[in-house]
Each structure stands twice: as C-alpha cells, then as structure tokens.
C-alpha cells in the first residue's frame, strides 16, 4: 500500500458525517425464499459510532442480514426501521461494498468521479475528493490505470474508496477481504480503521476471527439464520454465552449440532449436558 497514506484526521472531505439515519432497528425480522426461512425472528439495534462484526459459519445468514439492513431485500415478516431524522432518505446516507466488487470500464480516478458526479457534486469539489480518496486508500499511483486491470485487492480498495467518497453515515461490508493475501488484507483493514475514525459506522461480515478481534467493537453471532449472540467484542471473545459460539471460536464444526436453537438464557452452562 502507498506509504503516503493519509490519515482520516488530515482529510477535510472525510470529516465525520452528521447523524441522519441511525439507529437502525430490526424487530422480529424473518426472510424466506421458496418457503424456506433463512433469517428467523431477528431483533437488534445498530447504533452510531462502533464497528459491528457479523460472525457465523457458512449459511448462517450474514450476507442476507447485510442486504436486509441496506434495503436490497425486504423482510417477509417484521420491520426494519431507520430512526434518525433523515430516515425517509436513508439511501443517501449508507453504502455497501460486496465481496466481489463491480468495476466500471474506465480508469481508477474515473470510477471515483462517476459516483460523485451522480450525486451532483461540482467538478472542483470532485477533483479534491478524488485526490483525497486516492491518497487515503493508497491508489494514487494507479489513478490512470483501467480499473479492471487492477489486482483483486486493489479493486476492493477502489470499491471501498468509491463508496467512502460519498460520506456514508453507515457502511456495510460483506467479507471485503475474502480470498485476499495477508498484505492486501492488512491494507483493507487500515482503510476500514480510517473510515471508522472519520465517524462512519461500520457493519461488516467476516469469516476471519483474527480480523474480527482486530476490528470489532461489537459482535453479532449468527447460526442458521438466528441471532444467537449480540455482545461487546471483548465479552464475546473472552466468554461467549452461547455454546455454539463457544464451539465456533474453538474452530469446531457446527453443521451437525442442535436441530432446535434456543437463546443463551435457555441453555445450560458449559460443562453440563448439552441442550438437545
């Protein structure tokens, strides 16, 4: 990553966004496809100022939860409600980056200009924001390079820069470092930390427990579409209450565990007979 990486504090354009749409409340939300419930009776509140990391095995519903929160999907039951004063314009104040970003067929800089122009940002301001985004994500030397010629890690940095340039209050990231090498992962994590310092609330899924420990303020643990644990990161990694979360942290396979899921308050303590 470019050694001239700027910190968020040095960038005027990257100042903290105002609180416009948070908190976000999910009340008894379920989502199904072809009669199969994939998100089940989920209730939680996402508040400003923290990194919320979503953990769980494959098929737990992590990506679906992000898409529901972002508004790309609508629940079959329950409600998802932005509570801030600009809740009726929630789309303007949030952004999402997927595991496999889509690159426009143009240069790195032009990709950044496109999003800003679509928001009606004047050219002089666009030029300033693009320069700052390139510096903040270590892409300055690649400004004129076709975006589709970038490496996977560089494309992910560009996708994050493109979304961050719009100053979202809430930033959803769906496993942004999946299949990246350690150097590329480190670069993305540095950018995510800078985004948080700028005042943006991060909600992110990952399979990487080390990454979750480095980035998380709060953890949501999902299993088979249910939210089994919602805890401060320190508490979750030191002493999760749910037995499946305990097994997940140990790296044990979970697919064969309990058919019936119960909340932590109804589970026996670790060491006693496992609830069936």
Describe this structure as you would to a colleague:
This protein is of the alpha/beta class. It has one domain (8-266): 3-Layer(aba) Sandwich (Rossmann fold). Helix content is 30%, strand content 21%. The protein is built from 8 helices and 9 strands. It has a 6-stranded mixed beta sheet with strand order 5-6-7-3-8-9, with helices on both faces.
Keywords:
single chain; 276 residues; alpha/beta; Rossmann fold; 3-stranded antiparallel beta sheet; 8 helices; disordered N terminus; disordered C terminus
Distance between the termini: 49 Å
The CATH topology assignment is Rossmann fold
Radius of gyration: 19 Å
Specify the CATH class: Alpha Beta
How confident is the prediction overall: mean pLDDT? Answer: 88
Given the structure, what is the number of helices? 8
Q: Estimate the helix proportion, in percent.
A: 25-40%
CATH homologous superfamily assignment: P-loop containing nucleotide triphosphate hydrolases
Low-confidence region ranges: 1-11, 269-276
SSE-based structural type: alpha/beta
- Counting copies of identical and different chains, the oligomeric state is single chain
Shape assignment: globular
Q: How many domain regions?
A: 1
**Topology as H/E string?**
EEEHEEHHHEHEHEEHH
Q: Report the CATH architecture.
A: 3-Layer(aba) Sandwich
Strand line-up in the sheet with most strands: 5-6-7-3-8-9
The overall strand count is 9
What is the strand content?
15-25%
Largest sheet: 6 strands, mixed
């Amino acid at each position: 990553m470019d050694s001239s990486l700027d910190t968020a504090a040095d960038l005027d354009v990257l100042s903290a966004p105002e609180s416009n749409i948070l908190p976000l409340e999910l009340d008894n939300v379920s989502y199904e496809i072809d009669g199969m419930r994939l998100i089940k009776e989920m209730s939680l509140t996402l508040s400003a100022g923290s990194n919320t990391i979503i953990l769980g095995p494959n098929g737990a519903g992590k990506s679906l939860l992000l898409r529901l929160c972002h508004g790309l999907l609508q629940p079959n039951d329950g409600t998802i409600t932005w509570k801030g004063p600009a809740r009726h314009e929630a789309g303007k104040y949030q952004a999402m980056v997927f595991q496999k970003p889509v690159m426009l067929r143009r240069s790195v800089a032009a990709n950044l200009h496109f999003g800003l122009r679509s928001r009606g940002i004047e050219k002089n301001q666009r030029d300033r924001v693009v320069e700052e985004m390139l510096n903040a994500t270590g892409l300055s030397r690649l400004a004129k390079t076709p975006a589709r010629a970038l490496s996977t890690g560089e494309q992910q940095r560009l996708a994050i820069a493109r979304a961050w340039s719009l100053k979202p209050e809430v930033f959803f990231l769906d496993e942004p470092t999946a299949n990246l090498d350690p150097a590329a992962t480190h670069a993305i994590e540095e950018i995510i930390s800078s985004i948080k310092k700028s005042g943006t609330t991060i909600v992110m899924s990952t399979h990487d427990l080390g990454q979750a420990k480095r980035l998380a303020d709060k953890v949501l643990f999902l299993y088979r579409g249910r939210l089994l644990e919602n805890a401060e990161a320190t508490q979750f990694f030191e002493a999760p209450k749910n037995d499946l979360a305990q097994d997940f942290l140990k790296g044990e396979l979970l697919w064969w565990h309990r058919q019936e899921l119960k909340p932590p308050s109804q589970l026996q303590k670790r060491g006693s007979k496992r609830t069936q």
